[in-house]
Amino acid sequence: FNVDREEEIEVERIRFLGNEQFDDGDLQGAMDETRENRWWRIWKGEKFKRNAYEKDLDRVIDHYREHGYYDAQIVQDSVYYVGEDGLGIDVEVREGNRYYVSDVTWEGNTIFPDRVLSEQLGLSEGEVYNGKALDENLYGGQRKSGVLGLYMDRGYMRADVQPTVRVVGDDSLDITMDVREGDVYNFGDIEISGNTKTKDYVIRRELYTVPGERFSRSAIQESIRRLSQLEYFSKESLSGGPDISVDEEEKTAELAYSVKETGSDQLQLSGTFGQFGLVLQLGFQFNNFSAQNLFEADAWRPLPSGDGQKLSVNVRTNGTYYQNYSLSFTEPWFRGNPTPVGGSVSYSKYTRSVFGRRRTSSVEGGQFKNFSANFFVRQRLDWPDDKFMVGSRIGYQLYDNRGRNPETGDRQPLFSTVPFGKNQSITFRQSLSRNSLDNPTFPRSGSKMSLSLELAPPVGDLVQYHKWRFKTNWNVPIGENFSFGVGTDFGYIGSITGEPVEFETFEVGGSPFDYQGGTFGTDPVFMRGYPRGVIGPLARGRGGNLQPEGGQVMNKYTSEFRWQAVESQQLRARPYLFLDAANAWSSLNAYSPADLYRSAGIGVKLFLPIVGMIEFNYGYNFDQHVSLDRGGIEDPGWTFQFSLGQGFGRGGRGR
After folding, report:
1. pLDDT value, residue 142
2. What tens digit of pLDDT does each residue of 320-357 get?
3. Taking the alpha carbons of 304, 305, 306, 307 in that order, is the dihedral positive or negative?
4. Is the separation of the CB atoms in 578 and 501 below 8 Å?
5. Cα–Cα distance between 431 and 393 in angstroms, integer?
6. Could you give the CA distance from residue 364 to residue 357 in angstroms, rounded to a whole number?
7. Which residues make Cβ contacts (< 8 Å) with residue 133, sequence separation at least 6?
């Protein structure tokens, strides 16, 4: 049967003959591109492609062999016209018997004993034969390095394993593994090309492939992962790995990394309307900055870049009522070591005039000032592995909250969530974290965990507390374009002296956009599907309205099913489905881990080279909650939320 290359013909019918163990739907599901035309598949036309069809027939046989039918085969197939513009496909299969593994024998192996190789192979005597698992565990799959990976990580880059399968009786298979180990190879010269902005040493310090050291496939994979973490280069230029040239006489492997620079700097220009009216934000984030070249005239194109440092400058204002200025800087490799060092400063001022009524309706006038500064240092560890890192941070924070009662003239706080007058804290924070994500913005695999303790010692009149935070994020790839991620966030803040904790409690709900006007002594925890601050303890303000009081205990759970819809230099898009749950409690005595506010919905994360991250979501909240704006109880319903520059999973200062 011949199909005109210019002719687009849809597959109207696929039938299987001779199949008893699997129905037609199972076998059609094993096919990747050859599918029956259905009305709901509007995003993908079911056009017949001869080459894809031949590969799909192989996938049908692979499906049988994955379930033990070692000698399954296609007897015959036919493709024919159905009507004037459709195709029908008939496939006759011979399933054969279901086989079990009888014995696995290794020959030629001297480096690893049979036991180690058999454990990596994962096929034991008496198990159902699985052809797919055999290939993946021999040669490596998406989440496993395979038997060959053991050898290649020891320098045996030419190692090979050839399985021979012999049928024994009616339902048993003996498998003999012929191992050819070969010679040991070392890394030779390492070349880098394509980096028009990033300096060579910034790339080389991330590489685990060092000239003279023994060849290792894991070292190449980890090098690619760490280069991806920088987000300086396109995914396409990294996904194929480096080109490898082998010198058989010297037994060396020379690597050539070819990268393609992408825009890593971000401009944030946005506006939001909230309790202070219209607040405008202008921010610059330079992710590949060069402080060393600040005084080099030739380096200003338009700014010094290429040394991998991070510089962020942000301004938020709505005129005379509210201003916020912040500056941060990070050197990721201090003195040539993987020791990130940096700091930040921030200043905010709120002047009472025509503020919204929710927080300040009983205050005639005044000012609220907040200044904070911190310095941090982190150190990469070698044990348990080099993905662990410890961090230390020292911080200072000043709150100056002054207002006046319009009726009595008495002094009182401008914002009632923070005590009157000047309050200061000095904090010391220690953290332990591990990060194995394949990409920091759009992870498909890997995990990220962090445990931190922050102490504000009770010295003099300083604010006192101890604060614990534990966060996790796990990601699993599903096929080529989908992934599933789950996350947890646990927090607790307590008193060192036994006095009430008045600062840094957890305020749950809302999006990063809702907090453009800043926070008032609380630690925001973003929550899709719910407005700002409606989850957790509430209190009556001086104006009589409810407002977030902040909880001492916080739990949050997130889950996402993501689709890698667009991956290009101009746009990266990830639509997703989500299911979240969270709550905050006033104390440990009130803590009830099953009492959670739940939400579910759809969303999309977009990444533009200049703008950065943009996120939209439309979530349904399943539980009744208080309306802070209108008062009373809100029934379950839909909520639209928007975020620019910061995702919903990155809330809180306990990062």
Report:
1. 56
2. 788 999 999 999 999 999 999 999 999 999 887 544 44
3. positive
4. no
5. 9
6. 11
7. 66, 122, 123
Please state, in angstroms and rounded to a whole number, the distance separating the CA atoms of residues 393 and 384: 23
Phi, psi of 297, rounded to the nearest 5 degrees: -60, -35
Domain 266-650, CATH among 3.20.20.220, 2.60.40.10, 2.40.160.50, 2.40.110.10: 2.40.160.50
141 CA to centre of own chain: 21
What one-character DSSP code corresponds to residue 128? Answer: B
Residue with tokens 């200044």: 371
- Which amino acid, 120? Q
∠ CA 616-620-623 to the nearest 5 degrees?
140
State the number of CA atoms in the 13 A half-sphere of 82 facing the CB: 17
Within 10 angstroms of residue 635's Cβ, the number of other Cβ atoms is 8
pLDDT in tens, 216-267: 999 999 999 999 999 999 988 998 899 999 999 999 999 999 999 988 888 8
b/e map of 68-85 (b: 16 or more CB within 10 Å)?
Answer: bbbebeeeebebeeeeee
Task: For residue 513, give every residue at least 6 positions away whose Cβ sits within 8 Å of its Cβ, in sequence order, or none.
Answer: 270, 272, 641, 642, 643, 644
Contact 399, 521 (CB under 8 A): yes
User: Residue 308: its pLDDT value, please?
Assistant: 96
Given this chain, do its domains 10-94 and 266-650 carry the same CATH topology? no
Q: Does pLDDT of 42 surpass 70?
A: no
The Cα–Cα gap between 431 and 413 comes to 34
Topology of the domain covering 100-180: Ubiquitin-like (UB roll) (3.10.20)
Considering only the top CATH level, what class is 10-94? alpha beta
CA angle 425, 492, 522 (to 5 degrees): 50
Which homologous superfamily does the CATH classification assign to the domain defined by 186-258? membrane protein fhac (3.10.20.310)
CA–CA distance from 91 to each of 22, 79, 260 (Å)? 13, 9, 45
Beta carbons within 8 Å of 123's beta carbon, 6+ residues apart: 101, 104, 129, 130, 133, 134, 137, 175
Report the distance separating Cα 31 and Cα 50, nearest Å.
13
Of the CA atoms within 13 Å of residue 630, those in its CB half-sphere come to 7
Residue pair 388/345 in contact by the 8 Å Cβ criterion: no
Dihedral (CA of 584, 585, 587, 593) sign? negative
Q: Give 314-355 as a DSSP string.
A: EEEE-SSSEEEEEEEEEESSGGGSS--EEEEEEEEEEE-SS-
Q: Which tokens go with 143?
A: 């989440």
Count CB neighbours of 472 within 10 A: 15
Q: CA–CA distance from 306 to each of 283, 337, 341 (Å)?
A: 20, 17, 17
Contact (CB, 8 A) for 496 and 624: no
Please say whether the beta carbons of 105 and 115 come within 8 A.
Answer: no
Give the domain ranges of the chain: 10-94, 100-180, 186-258, 266-650
Distance set, CA 587 to CA 315, 532, 591 (Å) = 36, 21, 6
What integer is the mean pLDDT of 182-192? 97
* Sequence letter at residue 218: S
Amino acid in the structure at residue 102 = S
